[in-house]
Structures are given as C-alpha cells and as structure tokens.
Amino acid sequence: MAKVNWINGSIEPPDAERCYVIAEALTDYGALKKGDIVIDSDQWTGSQWGYYYGIFRVLSWARRLYPDIPKDLQGRVKRYFGQEVKNDGTISK
Predict the structure, then answer these.
(1) What is the mean predicted confidence (pLDDT) over 10-36?
(2) Shortest CA distance to 60 belongs to which of 6, 14, 5, 17?
(3) Which of 7, 9, 14, 90 sits a CA distance of 20 to 30 A from 24?
(4) Is residue 16 classed exposed, middle or buried when 0-12, 13-18 and 19+ CB atoms within 10 A define those classes?
(5) In whole angstroms, how large is the CA radius of gyration of the chain?
(6) Strand pairing class (37-44; 17-25)
(7) Please, which pLDDT band fits residue 1 given cuts at 50, 70 and 90?
(8) pTM of the model
(9) Predicted local confidence at residue 53, as pLDDT
(10) How far apart are CA 63 and CA 53, in angstroms?
(11) Are 55 and 11 in contact (CB under 8 A)?
C-alpha cells in the first residue's frame, strides 16, 4: 500500500480538488452504521466535501495520488479512478 500523510479533517484543503478521505458515518447509511469508518475519495468544493457532506464527517484527508499507467498496459486501460480513458490515452474530465 502507498503511504500518505493524512491531514486533520478540520483543516480545509487549499484548493477545490479531489482528495483521499477517511470519513466517519454520522448516521446509518445503507449497509454502514453510525460510527463506521470509510476510506475513499471525495471532491472538496472550496467550502465543503461533495459526496460526504452531511452524511459523514471527514476525519482526515490527503491529496489524491495518480500513479502512472504501466507502458505495457497503455491502450488497454478504459477507466482510471472512475474516469474514462480516451483512445488517445488522455483522461476525460
């Protein structure tokens, strides 16, 4: 696993960006129970977290890492962290 420097969730990210988050459920949500912890990614909008706002409390966050696609797999990868990879190898935004 990659090592990351987690930043306290009470500190806002400096820019609107996608980050890794460690979040605690504030209420029961689907199969998750209040107090359960998830590690995922979310979008900081500049004033609040996107998906997790109101449902989870972000305990910590870290800047998102995007590893390179190995050369022998380039051209075969169709989705990269939830985004479509175009035929020219660029990531759709």
Answers:
(1) 91
(2) 6
(3) 14
(4) exposed
(5) 15
(6) antiparallel
(7) very low
(8) 0.66
(9) 82
(10) 18
(11) no
The CA distance from 92 to 27, in Å, is: 34
Helix (H) or strand (E) holding 15: none
Residue 85 has pLDDT above 70, yes or no: yes
Nearest-10 Cα torsion for 78, 21, 63, 82? 10
**Helix, coil or strand: residue 73:** helix
The helix (run of H) or strand (run of E) holding residue 43 is strand 37-44
Element (H, E) at 33: none
Task: Report the range out of 4-13, 68-77, 83-92 with the highest average pLDDT.
Answer: 4-13
- CA 89 to the chain's CA centroid: 22
CA–CA distance, 23 with 36 (Å, rounded to integer):
8
